[in-house]
Structure formats: C-alpha cells, structure tokens
Amino acid sequence: MITAAELKPGYVVKINGKLYTVLKAKYNWSGRNEATVTLKMKNIENNSMLDTVMKGGEKLEDIQLDHREMQFIYTSGDYYAFMDNETYEQIEVLKDELGDIVNFLAEDGIVIVSFYEERPVAFSLPKNVILEVTYTEPGERGDTVGNTLKPATLSTGYEVGVPLFINIGDKIVIDTRTGEYASRA
Fold first, then answer.
1. Rg (CA), the chain
2. Where residue 23 sits, what CATH number does that domain have?
3. Are 22 and 74 in contact (CB under 8 A)?
4. Domain range holding 168?
5. How many separate domains does the chain show?
6. pLDDT tens per residue, range 123-134
7. Whole-prediction pTM value?
8. Helix (H) or strand (E) holding 22
9. In this structure, what DSSP letter does residue 180 have?
10. What is the enclosing helix (H) or strand (E) of 98?
11. Backbone φ and ψ of 50, nearest 5°
12. What are the pLDDT digits (tens) for 39-82?
C-alpha cells in the first residue's frame, strides 16, 4: 500500500479495480486543513483521463508492472505481433490498444511492453526512432526565413514536417514524445 502523498509521476495504482498511471501529482498543504494531493492520471486499459483530489493519507494499492523489451515483428490485419528477444515468447496486440505508437513502429523496432498479471497493459517507445522518408516534395532554394519545413511521409505512413534538404530515401530521427523531426540519421 502507498499513501496518496507518496505518489509521483510514473507510479501505477489500482483504484476501484482499474489501473491508472500517475501523470502529475501536486502536494497541497495549508496550515489549518489536512494535506491533499491533486492528481492527473491515465487509465492504462482505455486511455481515459482522471483528474482527482485525494487526502494525503489516503491509502492506494501500488502496482508493480513487469517491463519487457520486445521487438516488433509483423502485422496481421488489425493485430501487431511482438517477440521477447530473451524468451522468444510472442504476443499479438490489437492496433487500437497501441495508440499513437503505431506511427513510429518500424520493422524490427523495439517497444517496452508493461505486463500486469501476464497481460500487456502499456506500451512505450524509446525516446527516438529512425524512420525512412517514403515521399516528400523536392526542396526549393529561395528566400526562406528561419527554419522552413515541408511535409514528408514516413515508412509507417506518418506525416511529419522536415527541413528542405531531406529527400526521399533519407533516414531521419523522430522524437517519439513530440512526433517531430529531430535530425538526419
């Protein structure tokens, strides 16, 4: 058990039988009243958000997740398959459960899968991934001011703004937290 006052971003707790990951936790204490914690949490199973205020001493069930590094191996319809590189165990996950990470899943890409009671509940990517540009217009030299970007389609079908010097076939680094171009690979 853990008290609400001890919660920090990244903790996973069980509330009313549902798993939530803590995104923000702000501890509030005034001299007269009991301490409270303002929490912003995300439901792991359906990605809904929960904003709540709890008493600092309120006890919650702290959940320990098993994190495994897995490799993306193939898609089959709406299912994405991943393999544990240590045990060679494979799992299939519906595209809807993966959320936005499908935009950055390259063939043989690495995904950190979090398991709760042997069930995959959360998926995360490394900070940066390298993807190939499959389509972009040729860059025009001219009077540009500042950092001019043009649209580019990546090997996953995701569109991103890239600098004018990027061409079809170039490999680029994408920041998975923001979904933006970071650099040329």
1. 21
2. 2.30.30.30
3. no
4. 128-184
5. 3
6. 888 899 999 999
7. 0.72
8. strand 18-28
9. E
10. helix 95-98
11. -135, 120
12. 998 888 777 889 999 998 999 988 888 989 999 999 999 999 99
